[in-house]
Design goal:
This protein is of the alpha+beta class and 449 residues long. 41% of the residues lie in helices and 18% in strands. It has 17 helices and 11 strands. GO terms for molecular function: metal ion binding.
Amino acid sequence: MFSIARRIRPLKPFAHTVAVLGLTLTAAAMAAFPAAAVEIEEVTSPGGIKALLVEDYTNPLIAMKFAFKGAGSTQDEDGKEGTANLMSGLLDEGAGDIESQDFQARLDDLGVSLSYDASLDDFTGNFRTITEFGDEAFDLLRLSVNQPRFDDEPVARIRGQIAAGIVADENDPGQLAGEAFRNTVFADHPYARPSEGTLESLATVMAPDLKEFRDRTFARDNLYVGVVGAISPEELGAKLDEVFGDLPETAELKDVPNIDPVTGKTVAVDLAVPQTTIQMALPGVMRDDEDFFAAYLMNHVLGGGSFTSRLYREIREKRGLAYGAGSWLASYDHAALLGINTATRADAAEESIRIIREELTRMAEEGPTEEELAKAKTYVTGSYAIQNLDSSLAIASTLVGIQLDDLGIDYIERRKDLIDAVTIDDVKEMARRLLSVEPTVITVGPAGA
């Protein structure tokens, strides 16, 4: 998959690591969260801020995930690409009357984990605290959301770390493939711009730009919150107003158009490396498509199922052409695509592309077998709790995702039935719909191999 955001802090952890937080639930805690038995409550604060809550008093911990929908890198101003990404590294670098080092020290002293991230579409925050220091921790969160300082030193330091990463990636095949992928598949769209910005655009982003971005994109109407832990609905309601109550009612977001991914293109990037990186793009399905799970299961059989998928079996197991090969579905707010990726020795690139094309044709014409579909359903159903409900923050993230995608508070309970309802004919039709198109093919490797 092409990278849409870069780790922006190579010189220090992006989130504070505190053992007491118990990121992975104990066996006892896991037993409390089977996929069909997560008890979700909708909480509305006295001030009208909504959140989804799973109460859990197994450990004295509170985990919160929150997202400002539409406030991702698509909101960067032209010429100032990288603003959202830069800001994501600065909201815990001093806030209110607390400067950067003191703010970091307080987080560490209280055992608080706080981090932010900017994706293409959204701006998200992750927060964890032990209940003993909950009041102080939530106050630090309030300051970081509402009163970030954007002082010169941390702005220059974090900008420098991002810039160093950009320079380091100038000859990285994966990064070059991602850049070519974005520029080809999302041509002339905000999704084509690098989330981390460029050396030139980063140099123009100053504290006033960061403040303007935050003031314009952080609001109550695009805020979604998920909370898990030892906190009651009444207590959470008070904290929601404390942390987010002073935000403006409405975000001032720039319109972002929808786009269909460009297919049928071939782009070759010459790079003197032993391997050739290969990426392909085909149409995908939006998350609200009624046939989403038909596409999800089809992709699992094709390449999303890792070691059990057709692409892995044909390219790795049968021929040993690559360490791995796979496919993935991406459903953004304004586009959907199915991507394919692998990397092979340069002299085997054409063979690998041919095999992928053959598998796409076979799947489009025949679809999966009944056995493949049954195994895909079993895996996709059984792995959900492990992938989405295995820690307090993972559950909180799932709660936010349910809201962002408007899936309904009962989605976790309904998910298995939605998957079980998919028929072999549904999957075959989805395979024809998505895979009968000529893919865009991106290669990065030596010329003439």
